[in-house]
Amino acid sequence: MNKFEDIRGVAFDLDGTLVDSAPGLAAAVDMALYALELPVAGEERVITWIGNGADVLMERALTWARQERATQRKTMGKPPVDDDIPAEEQVRILRKLFDRYYGEVAEEGTFLFP
Question: What is the pLDDT of residues 26-54, one digit of tens each?
């Protein structure tokens, strides 16, 4: 009896192993944040959030962006605005935007490791 007779395909996750997708991911995250008029994080920061899937990436990006915006508004003497839309709804919207933008930038933002 061959253990592999029912296998119809094999998939390999090369992201982070052979392929550096961080630049494309960071660009898509920043584009999504910008679309929601949130502070952009930059590649160096986004790289620290990568590793647990896109949903967690969006949660991390939104948490940081909301805190950053609150700090900026406080410095300007303005009240916070992030209670207007629940974080869960913002994460859903951010994820949809991220998916769209990542589809646009993934190819030019992904590189083979040397």
Answer: 999 999 999 999 999 999 999 999 999 99
**Eight-state DSSP code of residue 109:** T
Positions marked active-site:
13
> Per the domain annotation, does 66 fall within a domain?
yes
Task: Please say whether the beta carbons of 100 and 36 come within 8 A.
Answer: no
Neighbours of 62 (CB within 10 A): 23
Rounded CA gap, 29 and 97, in Å?
Answer: 8
pTM recorded for the entire structure: 0.83
Distances (CA, A) of 67 to 15, 50, 72, 81, 102: 29, 19, 9, 11, 24
Counting the structural domains of the chain, the total is: 1
Name the token pair of 44: 């160096």
The answer to whether position 10 is within a domain reads no
Q: Which residue reads 């929601």 in tokens? A: 36
What residues form DSSP beta bridges with 20? 111
